[in-house]
Write a structure and sequence with these properties.
By secondary structure, the chain is α+β, with helices and mostly antiparallel strands. It is built from four helices and eleven strands, in the order αβαβββαββββαβββ. The protein is elongated and about 70 Å long. Pfam families: LmeA.
Length: 228
């Protein structure tokens, strides 16, 4: 019985040491991944990376992770035409992440996530003199205000997703005016498409919803390719 107790104590101690080593390895891997994301995306803050599943070390040996969660604040993406869109917050969950043989890349069987773009950041992306705000008059609508030729204008725009990578704002109607080609001139101010570049291959914008403080976008994908 004494020998059995000693054996159990040794097993418990070794198990505790393994758990400690496993958690240290997870912390180091999360920290390294966060630093790499920060560097590759030129972020001003370090993202949060959380690797799920236990034990981590056996997942590394098998080169497949159960789940990796990433949270990024202040991600700036290229919107084309020399413009950019700042994504206020991005959350992503990557499931069944397979790591390449030399650990230079990875792919996820499935990915889900959400992104939030504040009205302040959307207004900046719209261009000088344009303000985008919440419009409670309908579903997925925003109110756009600005000026044209010294005249103040307000338009109510529908927000939609186009081609899985672009957010579109399209005014349902244009404030009246007798100036030739007035509608075209107004739409140059109110209508816009902002492409969200930098999404991993296999991920798409799925759905958009407007709220009081900004636009919420859901993203999803299968066989998502992640470069190292």
């Amino acid at each position: 019985m004494r020998a059995l107790r000693i054996t159990l104590i040794v097993v418990v101690i070794l198990g505790g040491l393994f758990v400690a080593a496993d958690r240290i390895a997870v912390y180091m891997a999360e920290s390294k991944a966060a630093d790499k994301i920060k560097s590759s995306q030129s972020l001003t803050t370090t993202p949060n990376v959380s690797i799920k599943g236990f034990p981590f070390l056996t997942q590394v040996v098998g080169k497949e992770l159960d789940e990796v969660d990433v949270n990024v604040d202040g991600l700036t993406t290229d919107a084309g035409d020399g413009r950019s869109v700042r994504v206020t917050e991005l959350d992503a969950q990557l499931h069944n992440v397979r790591i390449s043989g030399n650990f230079s890349s990875a792919s996820a069987d499935r990915a889900t996530g959400s992104a939030h773009i504040s009205y302040a950041d959307l207004s900046q992306a719209a261009g000088p003199g344009i303000t985008v705000a919440h419009d409670p008059s309908g579903t997925n609508k925003v109110k756009i205000t600005g000026s044209l030729l010294g005249l103040s204008l307000t338009a109510h725009s529908q927000v939609t997703i186009v081609n899985g990578n672009t957010i579109r704002l399209h005014a349902e109607s244009i404030p009246g005016g007798s100036i030739p080609q007035w509608e075209d001139k107004v739409r140059e101010k109110t209508d816009m498409e902002r492409k969200i570049e930098g999404l991993p291959t296999g991920m798409r914008l799925e759905k958009v919803e407007t709220s009081k403080d900004g636009i919420d976008v859901s993203v999803a994908g299968n066989n998502v390719q992640l470069t190292g």
